[in-house]
Design a protein that fits this description.
single chain; HIT family, subunit A; five-stranded antiparallel beta sheet; binds adenosine monophosphate; binds zinc ion
Length: 114
């Protein structure tokens, strides 16, 4: 996908602080962290948001979800827990139109989500 920031990160055209990579998944530190640990987990293939998830890309999405607990353990979050968030579309404030799951942790997070 041309002009997609996260596709460029996957391609190595834009630098990132990698925390995990496998055949289908890439994870890196958020550039503007909202918690002591703030990592973004993305499919390597371009999917715009949860709204674009369907039969045709389910295996890529499953790979991302499967990687999240592995990454959380690697980051030392498994024991105390963490939050997983994905923004979808205008009202959510989604700024990068490539599906990504925020992993937030490293402290007791505020309860309010909205
Ligand atoms: P969202 O608002 O859910 O679309 O999240 C996009 C996230 O991407 C934000 O938390 C940004 O801080 C983060 N972000 C934007 N550009 C970069 C980048 N070059 N490297 C790492 N994270 C980024
Ligand atoms: Zn993309």
């Amino acid at each position: 996908m041309e002009n997609c920031l996260f596709c460029k990160i996957v391609a190595g055209e834009i630098p990132s602080k990698k925390v995990y990579e496998d055949e289908n998944v890439y994870a890196f530190h958020d550039i503007n962290p909202n918690a002591p640990v703030h990592v973004l987990v993305i499919p390597k293939t371009h999917i715009a948001s949860v709204q674009e998830v369907g039969e045709e890309n389910l295996s890529a999405v499953a790979a991302v979800l499967k990687a999240i607990p592995v990454i959380a353990r690697q980051l030392g979050l498994a024991e105390n827990g963490y939050r997983v968030i994905t923004n979808c579309g205008e009202d959510s404030g989604q700024t990068v139109k490539h599906l990504h799951f925020h992993i937030l942790g490293g402290k007791k997070l505020p309860v309010a989500l909205a």
